[in-house]
Amino acid sequence: MKKYFRPLVITSVIFIYLIIIAGAVVRMTGSGMGCPDWPKCFGYYIPPTEESQIQWQPNHDYKSGTIVILNEELRVAPKSFTSGPTYNSNNWEPYTKHNYAQFNVWHTWIEYINRLVTVLSGIPILLMFIISFGYWKKNKQITIFATLTLLSMLFQAWLGKVVVDSNLLPFRITIHMVMAFVILAILLYLLYLTKERKTSAKFPKAFKTVLIFSVILTLVQVSFGTQVRQHVDEQIKVLGELAKSEWLNPPTLSFYIHRSFSILIVLINGWLCIKNRKSNLGLSNLSWVLIFIGLEAFTGIIMYYFDFPFLSQPLHLVLASLLFGVQFFITLEVFKLKPLV
């Protein structure tokens, strides 16, 4: 069974990136409230495709937890019943977690696909957790971090519910995204633990210090990026989705810091790449770091100067997550060179 562990870790990493992509698309399209409840969607496991499905209907079988929109308000069935020829308020209760009572089939299904990807990602992680106990005698870290991955995914699922119940408070959305980065880091560590390592290269202390600094800079850059995104979300609520040219007019202090940090990030990682080549340190993945930084800067320029074209926002976030993933894995290679015990 151990031979399946590493492929399951790789599959889980891919799913985490798919979750990040799906979450970014949800945020870009404003589909986060496409399903007003969690984990179901309007009380259904398969979401509605037409507005008539979530409107009250006479002589209709309703199951407990079903939600309808009535007079621009959400109503939930506390128990299963069959409706009569006229609406009976005694069969319904107000949905009190939030008052977002709108239906858009595209928003509903985009949010549903986001949740579906999250659920599917739990399958390889659960299998990985079970198989990890075979490593207990050889390397307890593998079992411990596989368990931590499963617990983190459960916590992430709970955060998803909190985000929906809060009607998409920007700060909670950011925490939800940061948690995806944490899970990604744990999985990459597991990937590293199960990797065959044949070299025992030694890295200069200055190189290690600058490498750690570069990873910290990336995390700081991402944190300021989320603040900029929160500001954009608030502007969309005030100005509307069509006023893209005004979302960052005028730019915030967080935006200027976010943009300025990109210059420092390029310089720091450029130095690491030059040092790696001159000293033959063998870190081939450092080239990908510069590629992702370049693409990240390009999408940032596109968003600011061309008024947030379609898919530019999720692409910007996905590139940031790819950059972090590569940097984190390189850091593990540099600081954890001992073979498996």
Task: Report on the architecture of this protein.
- The protein has about 350 residues and is mainly alpha-helical.
- The protein has helices at about 5-30, 105-130, 140-165, 170-195, 205-240, 255-280, 285-305, 310-335, and strands at about 60, 65-70, 75, 80, 95.
- It is flat, with a radius of gyration of 24 Å.
- The relative contact order is 0.12.
- The model is unreliable at about 335-340 (pLDDT under 50).
**Strand portion, in percent?**
under 5%
Terminus-to-terminus distance: 19 Å
Helical fraction equals 55-70%
Subunit arrangement of the protein: single chain
Average pLDDT, rounded to a whole number, is 87
Q: What's the overall geometry?
A: flat
What string gives the helices and strands in order?
Answer: HEEEEEHHHHHHH
pLDDT below 50 for ≥5 consecutive residues: which ranges? 337-341
For the sheet with most strands, the description reads: 3 strands, antiparallel
Helix and strand composition category: mainly alpha
How are the strands of the largest sheet arranged? Answer: 2-3-5
Properties at a glance:
single chain, 341 residues, mainly alpha, three-stranded antiparallel sheet, two-stranded antiparallel ribbon, 8 helices, flat, disordered C terminus
Topology:
Layout: H1 5-29, E1 61-62, E2 67-70, E3 73-76, E4 81-82, E5 93-94, H2 105-131, H3 140-165, H4 170-193, H5 205-239, H6 253-278, H7 286-305, H8 312-335
Antiparallel strand pairs: 1-4, 2-3, 3-5
Helix pairs in contact: 1-2, 1-4, 1-8, 2-3, 3-4, 4-8, 5-6, 5-8, 6-7, 7-8
